[in-house]
Write a structure and sequence with these properties.
By secondary structure, the chain is of the alpha/beta class. It has a domain of 71 residues. The chain contains nine helices and nine strands. Strand 3, helix 4 and strand 4 form a beta-alpha-beta unit. The longest helix is centred in the middle third of the chain and has 13 residues. It is globular, with a radius of gyration of 19 Å.
Length: 269
């Protein structure tokens, strides 16, 4: 089973383009939902999660957030995973003191999210992982005003041998379809020619190839929220629609715009 796990909504960055933020601010800026803000005070302890994992079949735990390294019990959680379990993570990788303590023996993949305000700690985190035999990949988010910085960082990371994924930031009240920004993006892609990078032109379509399909959420895949609730999928988690799936797992019957097992299973109809 694949389990997308959000141990905490906490994050040590405040990115304006964060996809988990909703445009609720009076000035139109991104803000976390009230439910997520409330949830930050209710992270479940390590013992709760390890007890739950013991009841489940051996699974691949996919940690995201928030930033998983902000979960205070992360080191103990990883060390205590049941036999046969593996894990992967998406993190800004800035809490180097946590990264250095994690047991990477069961880690399948580390995706490091680079942000322009990350500073030197980002490279230190990458190096800490790489030195222990795990080769992380890097996701780089591009904003219009940071095109040159994005190119320089992509060139640096690619030159150092990292797998680099690049996509455009999704910003409130802004469209990359405007002619000036379309030209800017196309020019940026030409700058990247010759570099070993994966360019994602359109997140919604590239990540939801089987839109309005029925996936196996709740049977081969599920999600867990920081407050301890179980969800059929990440979309249900974001919507705050928990349901018990560990007792009687069943295939989801909802036609969804984000079928989360599209990379691993053919959708059911």
């Amino acid at each position: 089973m694949r389990i997308l796990f959000v141990p905490t909504w906490k994050c040590n960055l405040q990115c304006s383009y964060c996809s988990l933020r909703t445009t609720t601010g009076a000035d139109g800026s991104y803000q976390l939902s009230d439910r997520m803000l409330e949830g930050m005070r209710k992270d479940k302890p390590v013992d709760y999660w390890l007890s739950l994992f013991e009841k489940l079949p051996a699974s691949q735990l996919e940690l995201t957030g928030g930033d998983p390294t902000m979960y205070e019990g992360l080191v103990g959680l990883i060390a205590g995973l049941p036999s046969g379990w593996t894990w992967s993570i998406t993190s800004n990788t800035l809490r180097v003191e946590v990264v250095q303590q994690l047991d990477l023996s069961k880690c399948l993949n580390w995706t490091a999210s680079y942000h322009y305000h990350s500073g030197s700690l980002f490279n230190a985190g990458l190096l800490s992982i790489k030195k222990r035999g795990l080769h992380p990949s890097v996701t780089l988010v591009v904003t219009p005003e940071k095109i040159t910085s994005a190119y320089l960082k992509a060139r640096e990371l690619s030159g150092d041998g990292y797998r680099v994924n690049i996509h455009r930031a999704l910003l409130p009240g802004f469209s990359w379809k405007d002619e000036q920004y379309t030209d800017l993006w196309n020019g940026f892609k030409r700058m990247l020619q010759g570099l070993t990078v994966n360019i994602i032109d359109n997140i919604p379509m590239d990540y939801t190839g089987n839109r309005y399909s029925r996936c196996k959420a709740g049977r081969d895949y599920m999600a867990l929220g920081p407050e301890g609730n179980e969800y059929r999928c990440f979309a249900h988690l974001l919507a705050g629609q928990p349901m018990s799936v560990t007792g009687t797992p069943d295939t989801c019957k909802v036609d969804c715009v984000c079928s989360y097992d599209i990379d691993n299973n053919k959708p059911e109809r």
